[in-house]
């Protein structure tokens, strides 16, 4: 598993630096950061570790090639020049998907067809066959053509990394697990202090918080596309999983509270938390965020309140923000981290944030408003 290649981690916009930091902690130096993706050099061992450990990345892709392409011929020739036979055997399947952005080759579908044909021609020629059965291992080919640069990649992940496996069911407006994890990692929450999500929905933030502080690898309990690749040493993968299991901080006790006005959300949170193996650390209860009260003088609220999609909902949300602004102000030594797409949040909430950070929940532009109770100390911050 020692051959090195470029590995690309696509991210939600705004999480590139978080992913770079995660890679650094895994022992890899980022070689390139672009909007929505981070690149580093690694081998199959790195592919495995990145899939199992990354909390904020969306997938792990092996870069097969990159070149300028403004015409169909340039795209075909560029793809055909890549040594696909180094990855794919004569009967392997290679579905192709991707997108083009700000490029002369503007059609996703037409580019996909050209790429499929170029790979098929290359493999047919290399293996001396005219018919590719595609009944072997599946290598999902992904491409982007951005500003006339085509990048060809092989997906090693399968279902995206945010699908940890604990949230089979979710409520109407769930937060991406990768974004929830990032919110927790951005915060200055210290595990000796309580954490509260008073708008917990399906429980994503409390669950990601518990997994992060217990050092539970998010991919520990799920499978990945790369596990079918013959290049992979399955014993080494098993060893990396064993190692991750042994790295769980079993002595960390946590005080995490999840509440929501909707009893069905609380049921869901309990179910999801127990599926994620962190049920014992999360106390979930039905409560109205407008009247919450916490005993402890210090702690962190990390939350994603409703933001309202229709105008009437937006007005309701504005009112809600004003009400929680008053409630939260009584927790004056607590820190709060509030993610919303509502532009006037600070005015409605009644206080300017100490810090703001632009983040995206899928394609929805949001802002994480950060309010510090006691001045944050970087000491002991786990980033
Ligand atoms: C955007 S969703 C939160 C999604 C959540 N982060 C998740 O990943 O599933 C907002 C949640 O706020 C809850 N909610 C609305 N008004 C509330 C209130 N006054 N008090 C507590 N929860 C409320 C809704 O029931 C909904 O579950």
Task: State the gist of this model.
Helix content is 31%, strand content 21%. It is α/β, with parallel strands linked by helices.
Fold blueprint:
Layout: E1 5-10, H1 16-26, E2 30-34, E3 37-42, H2 44-53, E4 61-68, H3 72-80, E5 96-101, H4 108-127, E6 141-146, E7 149-155, H5 177-186, E8 195-197, H6 204-213, H7 234-246, E9 256-260, H8 263-275, E10 282-286, E11 300-303, H9 311-329, E12 335-340, H10 345-349, E13 355-361, E14 364-371
Parallel strand pairs: 5-6, 8-9, 8-11, 9-10, 11-12
Antiparallel strand pairs: 1-3, 1-4, 2-3, 4-7, 6-7, 12-14, 13-14
Bound molecules: S-adenosylmethionine (SAM).
Residues 171, 173-175, 198-199, 201-202, 204-205, 260-262, 265, 288-290, 304-306, 320 line the site of S-adenosylmethionine.
Key phrases:
single chain; 383 residues; alpha/beta; VC0802-like; seven-stranded mixed β-sheet; 10 helices; binds S-adenosylmethionine
SSE run: EHEEHEHEHEEHEHHEHEEHEHEE
Architecture per CATH nomenclature, i.e. the level-2 architecture of the largest domain? 3-Layer(aba) Sandwich
Which band does the percent of strand residues land in? 15-25%
**Could you tell me the mean pLDDT?**
93
Q: How many structural domains in the coordinates?
A: 2
The set of bound ligands, ions and cofactors reads: S-adenosylmethionine
User: Helix content range of the residues, please?
Assistant: 25-40%
Q: Name the strands of the widest sheet in spatial order.
A: 2-3-1-4-7-6-5
Radius of gyration: 23 Å
The oligomeric state of the chains shown is single chain
Topology-level CATH name of the largest domain: Rossmann fold
Query: What is the helix tally?
Result: 10
Q: How many β-strand runs?
A: 14
Largest sheet: 7 strands, mixed
Instruction: State the low-pLDDT regions, or none.
Output: none
Distance between the termini: 28 Å
Structural class: alpha/beta
Coarse shape:
globular
Identify the CATH homologous superfamily of the largest domain.
Answer: Vaccinia Virus protein VP39
Give the C-level CATH assignment of the largest domain. Alpha Beta
């Amino acid at each position: 598993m020692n051959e090195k290649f470029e590995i690309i981690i696509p991210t939600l916009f705004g999480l590139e630096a978080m992913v770079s930091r995660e890679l650094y902690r895994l022992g890899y130096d980022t070689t390139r950061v672009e909007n929505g993706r981070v690149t580093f050099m690694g081998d199959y061992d790195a592919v495995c570790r990145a899939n199992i450990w990354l909390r904020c990345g969306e997938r792990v892709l092996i870069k097969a090639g990159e070149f300028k392409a403004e015409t169909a011929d340039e795209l075909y020739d560029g793809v055909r020049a890549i040594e696909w036979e180094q990855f794919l055997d004569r009967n392997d399947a290679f579905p192709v998907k991707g997108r083009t952005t700000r490029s002369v080759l503007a059609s996703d579908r037409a580019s996909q067809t050209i790429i499929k044909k170029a790979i098929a021609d290359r493999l047919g020629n290399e293996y001396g066959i005219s018919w590719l059965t595609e009944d072997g291992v599946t290598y999902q080919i992904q491409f982007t053509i951005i500003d006339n640069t085509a990048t060809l990649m092989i997906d090693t992940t399968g279902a995206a990394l945010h699908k940890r496996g604990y949230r089979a069911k979710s409520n109407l407006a769930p937060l991406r697990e990768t974004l929830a994890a990032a919110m927790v990692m951005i915060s200055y929450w210290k595990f000796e202090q309580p954490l509260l999500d008073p708008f917990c929905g399906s429980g994503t933030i409390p669950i990601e918080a518990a997994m992060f502080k217990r050092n539970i690898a998010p991919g520990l309990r799920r499978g990945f596309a790369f596990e079918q690749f013959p290049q992979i040493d399955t014993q080494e993968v098993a060893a990396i999983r064993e190692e991750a299991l042994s790295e769980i901080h079993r002595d960390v006790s946590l005080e995490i509270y999840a509440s929501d006005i909707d009893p069905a959300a609380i049921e869901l949170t309990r179910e999801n938390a127990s599926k994620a193996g962190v049920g014992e650390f999360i106390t979930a209860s039905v409560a109205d965020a407008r009247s919450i009260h916490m005993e402890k003088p210090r702690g962190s609220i990390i939350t994603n309140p409703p933001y309202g999609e229709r105008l009437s909902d937006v007005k309701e949300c504005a009112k809600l923000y004003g009400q929680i602004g008053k409630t939260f102000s009584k927790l004056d030594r607590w820190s709060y981290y509030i993610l919303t797409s509502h532009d006037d949040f600070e005015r409605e909430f009644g206080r300017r944030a100490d810090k703001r950070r632009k983040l995206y929940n899928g394609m929805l532009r949001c802002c994480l408003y950060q309010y510090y109770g006691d001045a944050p100390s970087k000491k002991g911050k786990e980033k």
